Structures are given as structure tokens and as C-alpha cells.
Amino acid sequence: MSLMLTMICTVPARAETVMEKVSRTGILTRATINDLTPYSYINQERELVGYSIDFSLLSKKNYSND
pTM for this one? Predict the structure, then answer.
């Protein structure tokens, strides 16, 4: 009986979508690998650079409220 009651009263969990989280927090988190030339790698000045980094910075510039 209690199992049946649990099944009837259970509300399904709903995960938040990425855009819902961005709307709520104002933050978009991105990740990259630091040794995948030319997409992202550490240059001679020990800076993380590459296409992925350029795209991330451009996205920040275009979508930032700052």
C-alpha cells in the first residue's frame, strides 16, 4: 500500500536547462582542453589561446551586460 501511495504522490524531478540557468544566474560556464592545438593551447607566454578561447571572448563581448 505504501509503495502504491509513493508512486502516486511522487512528482517527477525536472532539471534546469542551460538557458534557464543562464537567465537565472547571468553566468554561462564554458570549459576547454588546454592542449588541443589550434582550438585551445598554452602559448610561449603561458597564456591560454586558440579558436575556442577567441570564440569564448567574442561571445562574452557580444552577450555581456557589462
Answer: 0.60
